[in-house]
Design a protein that fits this description.
The protein is an alpha/beta fold and 330 residues long. It folds into 3 domains: 117 residues, HAD superfamily/HAD-like (Rossmann fold); 110 residues, Rossmann fold (3-Layer(aba) Sandwich); 44 residues, no CATH class. It contains 11 helices and 19 strands. α4 packs parallel to α5 and α6 packs across α7. InterPro entries: HAD-like_sf, HAD-SF_hydro_IIA, HAD_sf.
Length: 330
Amino acid sequence: MSGLIGSATPLAEAYDLALVDLDGVAYRGHLPIEHAAPSLTAARAGGMRLVFVTNNASREPEEVAAQLTGLDIPADADEVMTAAQACAALLRTRLQPGAKVLVVGGKGLVTAVQAAGFEVVSSADDAPDAVAQGYAPHLAWEDLAEAAYAVGRGAWHVASNLDLSLPTARGLAPGNGALVGAVTAATGVTPSSAGKPGPGMFRLAAERAGARAPLVIGDRLDTDLAGARAAGFPGLHVLTGVSTARDAVLAVPGERPSFLGADLRALLEPHPAPVPDGAGWSCGEARVVVTDGVVRPVAGEGIDLVRAACAAAWGAADEGRPVTEVPELI
């Protein structure tokens, strides 16, 4: 199902594991996000397990857990799944233990690749079997050039993720995908990707936790929610990060969330499902119609209005009537 669904019970009761994105969901840069800590604490107290899943491959799980704990979200290292761990798992699908891997990234990626049984090398002249590339703030032209030399000589290029941007406290900065793009431009070789929006990291985290009913929570449609769709897991899109309410209304089928919330308090609430209502769609007291490619609110406000707008716009798009104009909704 590619549309919003409903839950008569709070999501924290309906699902046994939350796969929680970090930047834009649990925190923003080094700053807390309002309602994140108390909502996650309440969900955990009610029996929902948490695994924090991040496309950032530069830091160790212990560092991530310490940051979360410092923001009043207690976490252990084994509750963190990084793109570095997913990258190492992807390498193991093709390479034998002991294979040489040139790591271009932070210490988190180095640790994960070593823990997977590979020999980490620092030069293309070491004849690496693969290049593992992840974001780190210290990366320089020399590092990207070394990766390009190795890939050009036949090494398998594996990216921890392909995020073009990275949210920081000051705004959006170039992400790992932008740096990977430099190597791709130099070599003409398209890399494999371990992180979101691929399904591998979510499936690995859910399997490790022994989850029966996992729920993905994210702020980016093109990574978090697309990854949830790819993994076959329902996704909750919260409006505290990159993708806006307007973005959700215009989402393509492969990036549509199953649930929508203003923030992480949505974990603790039931979710009404939008329903068709004559020429429009309703959710709670909200009602929206689409005419001539324009989303037109008829009644209601708040998150239910966004839900109704998503249902109306997605329905129109799927019928071949794409939406071209979306008003301010929330």
